Amino acid sequence: MSIVALTGCDGSGKSTLQADLVAQLRVLGPTEALYLGQSSGRIGEWIATLPVIGPAMNRYLVGKSDKVHDRPSAPPGNVTALAIYLLSRWRAHKFARMLAMASRGVLVVTDRYPQSEKAGFNFDGPQLAKTEGGNWWVRRLRASERRLYEWMATSIPMLVIRLNVDAETAHARKPDHKLASLREKIAGWPHLKFNGAPILDLDARDEASAVLSSSLHAIRAALQASPARASAA
């Protein structure tokens, strides 16, 4: 599949690298960028702009989200579970859009990529799978969310570029993120296999030009090995 997935902790430079790669790769053929995160932060920012009820609603949702992260194994309430599930459905919708783009011969460079190996939105995995128990509604949503991620994981990217960074550097770049949360993410990312996809590990602390050059070299090699894109490369 003509898909390059950029993964790694917040603050590792995925968005910057994505923009640079798309600009460079468009000379080889149709290339598009796509964000495959669950978008809760962006949705929250939009909610906060709503008149009158926006700020209060955003604070409510942020509070619910913090409770899920602070008590990861406790089953969420019905409303929280539904909100989490809908975020996963939205991610699956974007994933289907990505597959349609790739099927048309577009090279898609994604910021993040869903996986089913490790639970939690911190790792682009199923969030409800971090919890245990709950009523029939919560258990049903958890099982359905798990199937969504298992389905997405079956589509293996042509190349995964994993940007590795230390917690202090990531926090300096993303001071609004909790340092403890960044450390948890950084500890978990190296163990993900993305269903056997080829993985290029890069040090995100290197010069941006060096990271871009290494990424382009690996992508061009992957394109040459891909029958669908070999002629374009």
Taking Cα atoms only, what radius of gyration do you get, to the nearest Å? 18 Å
Strand content: 5-15%
Shape: globular
**In CATH, what is the homologous superfamily?**
P-loop containing nucleotide triphosphate hydrolases
Strand order of the largest sheet: 2-3-1-4-5
Helical residue percent? 40-55%
CATH architecture: 3-Layer(aba) Sandwich
**Overall structural domain count:** 1
Number of strands: 5
Secondary-structure element order, as H and E?
A: EHEHHHEHEHHEH
- Quote the distance from N terminus to C terminus: 15 Å
- Structural class call reads alpha/beta
Kindly describe this structure:
This protein is 50% helix and 12% strand. It has 233 residues and is α/β, with parallel strands linked by helices. It has one domain (3-38, 81-129, 138-224): Rossmann fold. The protein has a five-stranded parallel sheet, sandwiched between helices. Helix 2 packs antiparallel against helix 3 (54-70) and helix 4 packs parallel to helix 5 (136-153). The longest helix has 26 residues, at 78-103.
Secondary structure topology:
Blueprint: E1 3-8, H1 14-25, E2 31-35, H2 40-48, H3 54-70, H4 78-103, E3 107-111, H5 136-153, E4 159-164, H6 167-173, H7 179-188, E5 199-203, H8 208-224
Parallel strand pairs: 1-3, 1-4, 2-3, 4-5
Helix pairs in contact: 1-8, 2-3, 4-5, 6-7
